[in-house]
Amino acid sequence: MAAAVSVSAAAGGDRHCAARPLYDAGQEDWGQAEVQEPEKDVGLEEPSISVDQRRVDEELPALSAEEIACRLERTRREFYNRRKILIKNLPADVSNQEVHELLSDYDLKYCFVDKYKGTAFVTLLNGEQAQSAIKKFHRHVLREREISVQLQPTDALLCIANLPQAFSQQQFEELVRPFGNLERCFLVHSERTGHSKGYGFAEYMKKDSAARAKSELLGKQLGSRMLYVHWTEAGSLTYPMLHSRCLCIDRLPRGLLNVQDLQQILSDTYAPIFCQVGPAPISSVPYLH
């Protein structure tokens, strides 16, 4: 059994609930439910990894201030590295060469002009160039037409959650890279400790690559953890919102049957604004709220 819980403040300040067994909270029948061997559904198997083993696996060393700053900066840089721009309202007879000439101060990696729609899809070297081009050419007049320049919307961004906290950036890249070419890939780190918060984002160049990754990674077992994967709307995701307000709590006592009991226990530490209990894995519960 597992639960999703949202708190009222983002976790940038790293306020958190200490790991402790919920059945110590005065519900004697919960402890009994943990001791007894639960009746398993046909066709379902649960990983036989103990809570103690998870604690051993995820004992993390303290990081230096320099390493913490380095990890946070990498996440920030990768988050803003959206290098694809969309140019609209181009003249009907605009050519690929004319768009190249317009953007001659930048490094074009890809350019496709749709003459029927007066639109150009352009990939530049990095996010800094994309932001510079938007600032310079948005509402620029080209042959008596005011063009629009903005970041391209993406439908290929995934959030992969419930990763082992010891998971490194390299391991995360190795996890998501087999499914297709990546546009962006980064873990979210604690601003206090510098360690991974257990989730990250992967944006693919093609949606079918992202769909394949979601299909393969959803429910995948990594050590003592089972991965949750969901689509993310890039346009509504801001840098401060990377710090999730939603906690996924698994390995709940079998005797915990309703949301009210869980809310009462958690309120001793930090009152949740949303709480949902369901059988694990909760594949349909968003990790960010």
TrEMBL record:
Record's keyword terms, sorted: RNA-binding
GO molecular function: mRNA binding
Gene Ontology CC entries for this record: nucleus
Presence of keyword RNA-binding: yes
Domain (RRM): residue spans on this chain: 83-154, 156-234
CDD domains to which the protein is assigned, alphabetical: RRM2_RAVER1
Record protein name field: Ribonucleoprotein, PTB-binding 1
Species whose genome carries this gene: Scleropages formosus (Asian bonytongue)
Taxonomic lineage from the root: Eukaryota, Metazoa, Chordata, Craniata, Vertebrata
